[in-house]
Amino acid sequence: MLKNETLHIRVNENVKTNAENTLKMLGITISDAVNMFLYQIPLVGGVPFDVKIPSAPESVIVRDIKDLYEKLMIGKEQIKNGEVVDADIAMNQLGKKYGF
User: Fold this and answer.
1) pLDDT in tens, 29-85
2) pTM for the predicted model, two decimal places
3) What sections of 1-100 are H helices per DSSP?
4) In whole angstroms, what is the distance from residue 89 CA to residue 81 CA?
5) Long-range CB contact pairs, 6-9, < 8 A, 24+
6) CA 14, CA 88: separation in Å to the nearest integer?
């Protein structure tokens, strides 16, 4: 099938770079990926993946200023009691576990 239409889209530079790097590992270009996406739309009758708000743990959902203040106080107590892990240590452990 001829490819004779051009799409012009604006995306965040980091989003594009991350997508290009991932797709390169798969051996395809962004153009290939967009074409795959567009082919799937009529096949599945819509967007070919779930579009929804991911569920978040209750501990990170802030409903109002009072709730925010209460969560900040809980965090402050956790820091005071040494119940937290240094961010550098946490990132190092995640990197080892997930290879990044």
Assistant:
1) 999 999 999 999 999 999 999 988 778 888 888 889 999 999 999 999 999 999 988
2) 0.52
3) 13-26, 30-44, 65-80, 87-98
4) 18
5) 7/34
6) 22
